[in-house]
Amino acid sequence: VPPALLPQFPSPSDRLGATALQVPARLMLVEEAEQCLPGHSFETLQVMLEQDHVLHVELHHPEKRIAVNMAFWSPIRGKGGGILTHLERTGRIDLMGMGSEFMMVEGEDRARKAWNLCRKICEYQETFSVLEKCPKPVIAAVHGACVGAGVDLISACDIRYCAQDAWFQEVDIGLVADVGTLQHLPKIMGSWSLVNELAFTTHKMMAPEVQSSSLVSRVFADKEMLLQRALEAATTIAARSSVAVQGTKVNLLCSWDHPVPKSLRYVATWNMSMLQTEDILKSVQVAMEKKGPEDVPFSKL
Q1: What is the pLDDT of residue 204?
Q2: Which strand ranges, in their side-by-side order, compose the sheet holding 159-163?
């Protein structure tokens, strides 16, 4: 990719693996998680490897109803990328909520603290922005309540599923949502009127309404089915060419922020090098042999 284009568009190192925000069937102990992610300790997260190239990160702070506090933000962002650094190595992440509300509760006051507050807000924003920037696709699977920062979190994910019992709401605590909801939802939902209504009234949206508004693409009967289908999607994505999957994400995000002519020019520039991958010949051969992508030994990026 010509250097002149790189400052204007997302680079491969800036974007996302298949991930889900879900309820786990089994959990990895914190000690095991820390072994998987050296140098990180977790107070509000639990981590487990579900299968090859699928890493689950569970939002786990039940006594606070998964309240979003300082202990939550750091491991996801972290030095060197935190959880996302491990995603680069394993291929996929599942973010999982443990059945209760997770919401924004931090804040400061006074103009004298403005610079520090601005810095903290930017750090909070980056916690969710890294999900969008990660090279791999991320699947968010939600059950129960998704409130405040929970909406910010899932809006940064690539695919969103929910269970029938899920509901979504912005919080009414006297502040402007500042870590992604107001920036993502107008593009995700496509209706300024609906986004304005949700932001101004903090209207509570149930699963059918959320699906009809395009915030989620699928609604499942219960959390068990939700988890199963999200993991199936993650596994399907993980079996495909990383060159194709990650390149597709980069170009989708480019199209998100740029007009069609510029996006077409970008994908042409992108593919002038990426079409030289051996993954294409492997995929064609497998198709001719009537096999599936899971039968191709694609090397991971």
Answers
A1: 93
A2: 45-51, 54-59, 93-97, 139-142, 159-163, 218-220
- For position 25, what pLDDT does the model report? 30
SS3 for 107? Answer: coil
Structural domain range at position 246: 242-295
| Residue 276 belongs to domain with CATH number | 1.10.12.10
Is residue 132, in this structure, part of any structural domain at all? yes
Residue 28 lies in a domain: yes
Question: Cα–Cα distance between 221 and 155 in angstroms, integer?
Answer: 22
Q: Which 3-state string (H, E, C) describes 129-152?
A: HHHHHCCCCCEEEECCEEECHHHH
Q: Is 45 helix (H, G, I), strand (E, B) or coil?
A: strand
In a domain, 6, yes or no: no
Q: What is the pLDDT of residue 258?
A: 93
Which portions of the chain are predicted below pLDDT 70?
1-52, 55-58, 60-112
pLDDT value for 3: 38
- CA-CA distance, 186 to 169, in Å (whole number)? 15
